């Protein structure tokens, strides 16, 4: 099935040169609204998971300790160029969201934009985000989700066979995913294309379900 980490590494390596043309302008407002919801403070340690080419960077405060990771070296290189250009003090490296290379409780803020709908196993990515977040840390998510109130119907599940292969899953439900991973959602706002794209801010409630 075309929903594996190996496939994601290959296709995002191919997408990297054209990613900004597709995803910069289209998501500016959604990114800003998502990141504006974070309670920022100087000196916070911030991790961007699946950071892509760094399109979140313009909306981040500068006085933070910034770390970022992505599966694809081609994305990491573009992130590095953008972060340098914007004057960030940062560290970026190739990293799988399912195995974050950081100790427990290390971060004040974890940003996951347009990655939970892409990963084959979002539960695992959220488990890792939970592990590396401090007890009072904030998880900032922006992505496309199926409404929490009802599971995806057959039409959406059929369309999903195609969207998953080339872009993204459209049947995942943010509420159950986050609560099963041990988060409490503090804000949940529709930010684009009706209720398809949502920005959520969550904090840790307890250990995630295993
Ligand atoms: C849709 S793009 C989003 C990029 C960026 N977060 C943004 O908002 O523009 C998905 C990104 O996730 C990365 N990715 C996919 N699977 C990943 C994984 N398992 N670990 C880390 N990054 C991953 C891809 O390489 C790609 O850069």
UniProtKB/TrEMBL annotation:
InterPro entries: Methyltransf_11 (IPR013216), SAM-dependent_MTases_sf (IPR029063). Keywords: Methyltransferase, Transferase. It holds the Pfam family Methyltransf_11. GO terms for biological process: methylation. Gene3D superfamilies: Vaccinia Virus protein VP39. Residues 49-140 form the Methyltransferase type domain. GO terms for molecular function: S-adenosylmethionine-dependent methyltransferase activity. CDD domains: AdoMet_MTases. PANTHER family: METHYLTRANSFERASE (PTHR43591). This is Phosphatidylethanolamine N-methyltransferase /phosphatidyl-N-methylethanolamine N-methyltransferase.
